[in-house]
Amino acid sequence: MHGLYVLFHKSIRELRNRSRTLTHSRLKVAVITFFAVGFWFGLYLLFREGFSFLCNFPDLLDWVMEYLLSLFFFSLTLMLVFSNGIIGYTGLFRARETWFLMSRPIPPGEIFLYKYSEAVIFSSWAFLFLGTPLMAAYGRVQGAGPAFYVLTLLLFLLFIFIPAAIGTGMALLIARFFPRSKKALFLSLGALGLLLLVLASSKILSLRGVTTPFSGLWMKGVLERFDFAQKPYLPSFWVARAVISLARQPAMDVEASMFYFGEILAWSLFLVWLAWRAAERWYLRAWSLCQSANPKPRRAGRSRFEDLLYRALFFLDPQLRHIVGKDLKTFLRDPVQWSQFLIFFGLLFIYFLNLRTLSYDEKAAGWKVMISVLNLSATALTLSTFTSRFVFPQLSLEGRRFWVIGMVPMRRSSILLGKFAFSFVGSTVISELLILISTAMLRMPVELSLLHALTMLAICFGLSGLSVGLGAMYPSFNEDNPSKIVAGFGGTLNLVLSLFFVVLIIALEAGPCHRYYALGAIGDAEFRQSLGVSLTGIFALSALAYALPMALGRRALERAEP
Questions:
Q1: How far apart are CA 165 and CA 148, in angstroms?
Q2: Does 374 share its domain with 234?
Q3: What whole-number distance in Å separates Cα of residue 505 and Cα of residue 499?
């Protein structure tokens, strides 16, 4: 394991050297820390209020928490398997660093473990960021002692190795046995996502005729239809049971918690060992096959789809149309992007289509307004993560080919506008479609439906400007892994500002929605006044989110060396 020690030592030295450069950017570090801490405490307060509400029903608390935690960890397990498979595939078979490491006297199994550890870090930090406020709020409500927080953190650290080993193991096996089908991994994971969509749809449809929504029997019926997360052979079930055992009062159930601790530890070690043994046998062969696999030759010229695209973008300059077309073809040829896009927005699509199944359209005006605003918030927050994940690193992924941009006979600001047009048009089409479906299913008034549509248009405009502008301000041309680009300072700043921007927009839109809820009518003068003030603030904030980052990004791009 000497080679693995050298690789980890190299990473520690590299991290130390990068941290020294941050001393010259204390303001940047302070801004990131401020927003991250604020977001963490916001999640903590939100979870605490929810758990405090459940404490009003002590007979149901443990039963409901067991279902909720099992479903929460089950969903995270699937997402971690998916993300680790994608990041692991990129790091193991596509990263330039892997080419160098393969030429060094380091065993392939140790290179695999090194890349596996990278996948764990880059895919699981968000899980810890979301999971720690959840557990802190649950422990606070339950009155748990300090041992609960320490043991729960240790439990999380052990748990993340299970989905990471499964995801990277799938990447290794598919690369070994299907080397000429580069999309095999992503098509397999996409099939898994489609299966989950069908499962989610069937579960929602099965609620038809349960009983009145928001009643005790309705909650019992809903939770029992998600008992697939309660299977005793699932890691999510072990984590949920261990957390509940640790939080049990007046004294934690040591025997039960240690039993589930032992299960998670044993399976973590076993799966990591199994993936390592498979890598020792197949990794070198799989890597060689992936590098020698010949891609399918592409026909020269434009396809019918591209001709249709160029006609649809008639309002853009011809040069900008070429940039948008190039980015769209890059998106469609990258299964990493379109597979995640289809899964997450597909889930929202199925949920919105089944809103009437739960009789939400028959509820009072207050409930309908609240649900429509929550749907808008879910769509906007999902969009903010995707613009941060896929739009922000677009310019950086040009890499060492950036000199080509400098030779193109057009202003660099036009190139930036092309990136913005691609992001804005693509995000607007899918987001507006989802909002239209949501408001139609809820039978919302035309005025509020138009307000939601205009709000989403402003969100798409602002998020696209933020991601493209900050991507030009903080490029990383030496990195070819988008996960690492997003995990850097610029990517983190973009994600934090995007979330903050969405929260402010939703808060501005809540004014007329509250007026409608309080008055129950559209034609009131106070409602129209509130609507005007809200739209003015929304468009002003969206324009600021576009103009300032794009101006700074344009200046940085003009100064960049080709």
A1: 26
A2: no
A3: 10
Q: What angle do CA 318, 319, 324 make, to 5 degrees?
A: 95
Closest by CA position to 134, among listed 160, 153, 121, 147:
153
- Residue 227's CB is within 10 A of a number of other CB atoms, namely 11
Q: How many domains does the chain have?
A: 2
**Extended strands (E) in 196-347:** none
Please confirm whether the linkage preceding 250 is cis (ω < 30° from 0): yes
Clarify whether residues 339 and 237 are in a common domain.
no
Q: Last residue of some domain: 265, 286, 307?
A: 286
For residues 326 and 272, state if they share a domain.
Answer: no
pTM strictly above 0.70: no
Asked whether residue 485 is assigned to any structural domain, the reply reads yes
Residues 319/414, Cβ–Cβ less than 8 Å: yes
Structure tokens, 232:
């005793």
- Distance in angstroms (rounded) separating the CA atoms of residues 438 and 395: 34
User: Angle, nearest 10°, between helix axes 58-93 and 108-142?
Assistant: 160
- Rounded to 5°, the CA angle 335-336-341 comes to 90
Q: Which two tokens stand for residue 244?
A: 């509940």
Write the DSSP string, 432-459.
Answer: HHHHHHHHHHHT--HHHHHHHHHHHHHH
Residues 524 and 379 in one domain: yes
Distance CA 308, CA 324 (A): 13
Q: Which domain holds residue 240?
A: 1-8+108-286
User: 370: burial class by Cβ within 10 Å (0-12, 13-18, 19+)?
Assistant: middle
Q: Residue 399: left (phi > 0), alpha (psi -120 to 50), or beta?
A: left
Among 286, 309, 343, the domain boundary falls at: 286
Quote the DSSP letter at residue 301: S
Say how far apart CA 202 and CA 207 lie, in whole Å.
Answer: 9
Tokens of 78: 């699937």
Mean pLDDT, consecutive 10-residue segments, the chain of 562 residues?
78 76 62 77 84 73 76 81 80 81 84 86 76 86 84 88 88 77 55 56 50 51 64 84 79 79 90 90 85 58 63 69 72 64 69 66 69 85 84 74 62 77 85 87 82 90 90 77 70 83 88 67 67 87 91 80 54
Helix (H, G, I), strand (E, B) or coil at 344: helix
Residue 184 lies in a domain: yes
Pick from 351, 369, 312: nearest CA to 434? 351
Of 490, 484, 495, nearest to 123 (Cα)? Answer: 484
The verdict on residue 44 lying in a domain is no
Q: Are residues 279 and 373 in the same domain?
A: no
- Residue 115 and residue 218 in one domain: yes
> What token pair was written down for 467?
């991601």
